[in-house]
Predict the structure.
Amino acid sequence: MRIYYQPKNQSITQKNLQLATKLRNLQKSGLPMKHLLGIKDVSLAEIQQILDTATNFKEVINRPIKKVPSLRDITIANVFFENSTRTRLSFELAQKRLSADVINFSASGSSVKKGETLLDTVNNILAMKVDMIVMRHSSVGAPHFLAKHIKAQIVNAGDGTHEHPTQALLDSFSIREKLGDLAGRKIAIIGDILHSRVALSDILAFQKLGAEVMVCGPITLIPRYISQLGVKVELDVQKALAWCEVANVLRIQLERQQIKYFPSLREYTLYYGINKAMLDRLDKPIVLMHPGPINRGIELASDAADSEHSIILDQVENGVAVRMAVLYELANQNS
Ligand code: CP
């Protein structure tokens, strides 16, 4: 068990001791997983343990001194083969808050452009004595492939249209923080389900936590066999909003759409875009989420994104605490 930070010239406070005890107790049950590749492989108990640890870390990052020495003996490489703002920055901040050594790799500007393979790239990074890889890749299954070929621990920061497990964990944490337990809650995931990696991870996490999940969007953007996951399918966004307590709106991923899935963006916005008037008309509280980046004025109007219904920036804040928890739990798995 790694110790907690004691600022210079300050005695250990009761608060610090309570926090260390809480983390030590959480640690006793241990997480059996070596990697975090997808929510599919994570049990309900493991999800709850990560969320509970994140609650403790959220308290830490709201202190005047936000840093703890928990991972000071660990070196982590953030290996990003695809663009990112939130995930890359919040992983880096989480690692720094835990006192890990951090290196950052972006495929653009690297020797990948000269033809170096994924495995060679990662093996060269690991040769520099790196313990853990956080990787985003445009290919489905890239982190699963790596896990079979390298010894280091891997965290999937998004693989193509497949999974984005830390986004699902921070989404679950944000709903739990706003509404309490997810069990019995009604959550609608609205938008481009077909090209989204957040959709599958969210569905799996929300269901494991006991929520009822609906997906909503044009039929062309809903995977054909999705109802086999036990989700409701709704094509009418007004009905989806009337049904749910939480609306998680997803981005239209034009960069992944090789063919036309709807006639025009204008028509998509007309039928599936969400604005504040639609939320206000519901005559009930509703929590609005979006994993980002938002296409403002397309799937979500600014007046909704910036309204009192929205917890979008809370999701971003919680991303740091949740990623601290994931890194901490995985690093402690081997200690
Ligand atoms: N939500 C999310 O994954 O955002 P980024 O692509 O900016 O990391």
In short: DSSP finds twelve helices and nine strands in the chain. Residues 220 and 261 are 6 Å apart (CA to CA).
